[in-house]
Design goal:
mainly alpha, two-stranded antiparallel ribbon
């Protein structure tokens, strides 16, 4: 909830430059995209099995959904940076040592409660502001998954490759982050490793919650008729946001 408020304030604040407002508007639109896509894609009979009508086109649309979810993740980091008065940069990262990609880097270092930007100036929002920045991508993933699975609870039985691509990235990224963090192989730029560095909670708590939420969303996909799963999944997402808000 806080993240949506932050994004809306960035868009509406006239003191911010046009690029900041444009960037924020793009992310707000990206977060709303799953809802619009969920209503736009074809909804066939619930008897349609998985992996039917697989074609080059459907694979391409799935890949587009996967890429869109990645862009939303990184864009949310960007908006959170701007909302906290920090200008991020793009930084090449190798996840697990061999998967290269570009990530939005805040360039902020926190030590003993004091946070500074890459140019040496103080980062006034402090550790809480830094926690909002580094958690923004994961929170956006969970919000997007919730929109998809709430609007299209029987997605498993539908021909909706774009939404399945988004859901695939979001859950896979959460699982990869969680396992890498718990195994101690997450790169220094990783979201969960950054959270652990400023959080009073023991290392691995955020990772466990993120992993649990992803597992619940996967279970919702495969077991859409289990009535208690959505509520437990939503509760887990609230816990994720609450740990950052109450930081």
């Amino acid at each position: 909830m806080q993240l949506f408020v932050v994004e809306a304030s960035v868009v509406a604040d006239p003191r911010r430059g046009p690029w900041s407002r444009w960037f924020a508007a793009c992310v707000v639109g990206a977060l709303l995209a799953p809802g619009f896509a969920a209503r736009a894609e074809e909804v066939p009979s619930a008897s349609v099995p998985e992996f039917t009508d697989v074609s080059l086109g459907s694979v391409a649309v799935t890949a587009a959904g996967f890429l869109t979810a990645f862009v939303v993740h990184e864009a949310c980091h960007g908006v959170a940076n701007l909302a906290m008065g920090n200008v991020p940069t793009l930084q090449p990262v190798r996840f697990l040592g061999f998967l290269p990609f570009l990530a939005v880097s805040p360039g902020i270092t926190c030590n003993q409660g004091v946070c500074v930007r890459r140019n040496g100036t103080p980062f006034l929002p402090g550790q809480r502001g830094y926690a909002v920045i580094v958690s923004a991508g994961l929170i956006c993933q969970e919000v997007a998954d919730e929109i998809i699975l709430t609007v299209r609870p029987r997605l498993r039985y539908e021909r909706a490759p774009f939404l399945k691509g988004m859901l695939l990235f979001n859950t896979a990224a959460s699982v990869a982050y969680g396992i890498a963090n718990l195994a101690g192989i997450e790169p220094p730029e990783g979201d969960l490793r950054a959270l652990d560095g400023v959080s009073p909670l023991p290392r691995g708590v955020f990772a466990a919650v993120i992993l649990g939420t992803a597992a619940l969303d996967v279970a919702r996909y495969f077991l859409p008729d289990t009535q208690w799963l959505p509520w437990v999944s939503r509760g887990s997402k609230v816990v994720t946001i609450g740990m950052v808000v109450a930081f």
